[in-house]
Amino acid sequence: GTNVLRMSSGIQIKPKTIVQKSKMSFPLLCSPEPEIRPQPKPSDKLNPKTIDPFSVYSRPPSAFAAVYAKGGIPCRLVHGSVKHRLQWECLPETVPFDPLLVTLAEGLRETEHPYTFVSKEGFKELLMVEGATEKAIPLLPRLVPVLKAALAHSDDEVFGRGLDALVQLSAVVGPSLNDHLKQLLTSLSRKLMDKKFREKITIALQNLEQYGGKVS
């Protein structure tokens, strides 16, 4: 303790705080609402066990991780005692689907926590808002290639998230997805040969047929 006091030469050095770091200007995707106070960045509230995208020793962050760390995803993970949930910084109904829905779909290929949960749950919850059909249909040309990449991924969990997202999207856009199904069926047919995926893929195909109608 004595040594610490002697090191002081009248200059008080204060460590940088997270509050200073969070003042980076990055536009949130929510519609402007003056009465709502700015929320801390999602990256400031990650679980201590969560990988730090700014770590010198970690690999360069993916595109989704970089957007998430900068506060570009207007929701964050809340750790619960039983299960986790998302907390949105604004009403999901006020969030533009373009580009957030596509960004969340790209995040389905993540393999690190919390990106896996945020992308999967965020994609699901965004498609549940009122008017989701009209907002999602124009994005299909960009969503389908991203979902195709998830379905073709070597990681089984990534494939599972991609398959769930595809069924969720189909339930929302209905027959509008039919013209894009050929791009997706190749990946599904390959996985169909694997016994551990056979039942889940079969159910997914039945759902796609139901939501897409006779044409599908």
UniProtKB/TrEMBL annotation:
Superkingdom, taxonomy of origin: Eukaryota
SUPFAM superfamilies for this protein: ARM repeat
InterPro entries: ARM-like, ARM-type_fold, Parkin_co-regulated_protein
Signal peptide location: none
Record-linked PANTHER family: PACRG-LIKE PROTEIN (PTHR21207:SF1), PARKIN COREGULATED GENE PROTEIN PARK2 COREGULATED (PTHR21207)
Protein name: PACRL protein
Originating organism: Chloroceryle aenea
Gene name of the encoded protein: Pacrgl
